[in-house]
Amino acid sequence: MATAGYPLWVSSDSNAFHPETLNYGEYLRMSQRGIPAPFFQSEASRDTATIRASPITIVQTLMEVDQWLHIFCSMVTNAQILEVLSPGEEESYKERKQVMSAELVLTTPYVPAREAQFVRYSHQQLDGSWIVVDVSVDELRQFHRPSTRSVCRKRPSGCLIRDMQNGSSLVTWVENVDVREKEDEMHAILKPFVESSFAFGASRWISTLQRQAERFIYSTGINISPSDAPISPEGRRSLTMTANKMVVSFVLTYATPRTITGLHQTKQDRKLWRSRPTSEGVILANPLDCTVLQAALWSSSHLIIESSITSATYRTDLSGNSMLYGVDQDLPLMPFGFSILPNVSGSILDGTLLTMVFQITVKNVSSKQAVEVVTQIVKEALQKIIEAVN
Prior knowledge:
Blueprint: E1 9-11, E2 20-22, H1 24-30, E3 41-51, H2 55-63, H3 65-71, E4 76-86, E5 96-104, E6 114-124, E7 130-135, E8 150-154, E9 157-163, E10 169-180, H4 191-195, H5 202-219, H6 233-254, H7 267-270, E11 278-286, E12 289-296, E13 303-311, E14 316-324, E15 335-345, E16 348-357, H8 367-389
Parallel strand pairs: 6-8
Antiparallel strand pairs: 1-2, 3-10, 4-5, 5-6, 6-7, 7-9, 8-10, 9-10, 11-12, 12-13, 13-14, 14-15, 15-16
Helix pairs in contact: 2-3, 5-6
């Protein structure tokens, strides 16, 4: 699946969103697993990208569940290792096999989370490249619990990781799954987006890995820009960790072309949708995301972090704001912001799907007044966004 070309995979020059399409007829001819079970639909996608990390670092990220949760915090929740079938070679990930479970999510409450149980296996080939593969098998029924969410069964999926001998890796990612969706929990307007393999496809996985590798490099101070100079290396790491925790909190709470994704990339654009004035301080930016630390002009005790995550490969953006009551990264976060998804159907991109989430703290006001305040904030932010993109 990772190395085969035509006729298994058919290139699509006219569709930049799906560079390759699986030929299901050819796949069923060569596969022993056959067609999906009743009520299940198949999704398959493949993508390749250069990741600024060594192969063993990527393998470790995928095999260590805590690291997997951290790197894919916008996609994976409630992941755990149910059983280690084979620990592999000592001090190595060679031939490790483990049973895992996880919930796969999209940053909107209108697409149900997908539950998955699978065996994950890591293997180093004779040429030095690595393979990490997932597959759901019937024997996993010993761990089965009745599901209240969508169910995802993995056909052989995973990645082929090649060392580029310059500190980077060439990664080919394959997602090949059968899914039984909870149709009553999915909003009709998002159904084409999910069925187009944008939501949970290979491009989203590999672009998230690529972005997080870039974020780690910038957080260590490598290739530091003049605008970042005032902050120490420890401060950069602390700010990056806080922004990541903010995204995790946002996802756990709400995940159940010039487009809007550009509204966070420049100082002038960021002003277009803010409802209250701020003074921008530290900016940690790379081509794939941007984190901004600001001071709230209406309060000397409030700091704001804005973190925008933009994937160039599938054009999705997540922006979240957090009030920090102080500078300690262990203090409570109150994430609010936007989940911005492309409105796609097949190969057609038609506008943007925007989910807005706001939280505020209130004191000495009624619930009705609080709702009125939030409603007004939402209306003002939405109007500014509409004016900015039109």
